[in-house]
Design a protein that fits this description.
The protein is mainly α. The protein has eight helices and three strands, in the order βαβαβαααααα. The chain has two domains: 89 residues, Response regulator (Rossmann fold); 61 residues, Winged helix-like DNA-binding domain superfamily/Winged helix DNA-binding domain (Arc Repressor Mutant, subunit A).
């Protein structure tokens, strides 16, 4: 008999695949599993995307152990665990016009590619990191530029810096 866990603690920084991609796969295969996303990135980087993708909660890795325990108990009971910071972000998100910032209109994969470009990764490096072809990454880059109405990688980097989207120069695929 196949065992399915009640709860899964998912680090969104995984080698070779994004946590968003893994979460979506888990949700399609095992919708009954409560997923708590854990990340080294601040809530404003990925939390809303993870919750929209099906995570029942999101915690920063430096959260106190008792907060992690509380979050796990909350999601196992069938409820969402929403931190004060995530609540603030979600309210701000609802109050905004969706067209306020162009990066909000990117798909999850496009957003990942954008962050990799912001870190100065080459198309080859991004392709290897995401297990995609260089042509596919190039297509994502073209879509990003079009959706954001920008012309070059340097424009993307300027945008990332202006809007503080960079995850601190850390490789999103590396766990901490």
């Amino acid at each position: 008999m196949k065992q399915v866990p009640d709860v899964l603690l998912l680090d969104i920084s995984l080698p070779g695949r994004s946590g968003l991609e893994v979460l979506k796969q888990i949700q399609s295969m095992y919708p009954q599993v409560a997923v708590l996303a854990l990340s080294m990135y601040p809530e404003d980087q990925f939390a809303i995307r993870m919750v929209k993708a099906g995570a029942r909660g999101y915690l920063h890795k430096d959260s106190a152990p008792h907060v992690l325990e509380d979050a796990m108990r909350t999601i196992v009971s069938g409820k969402q665990y929403i931190s004060a910071e995530l609540t603030r972000l979600m309210i701000a998100e609802m109050a905004k016009d969706d067209n306020d910032l162009p990066h909000k209109n990117l798909s999850d994969r496009e957003y990942e590619v954008l962050l990799f470009i912001g870190e100065g990764k080459s198309m080859t490096d991004i392709a290897a990191q995401l297990s995609l072809s260089i042509k596919t990454v190039s297509t994502y880059r073209s879509r990003i530029l079009e959706k954001m109405r920008l012309k070059s990688n340097s424009d993307l980097v300027k945008y990332i810096l202006l809007h503080d989207l960079s995850p601190g120069g850390a490789d999103p695929a590396q766990s901490s």
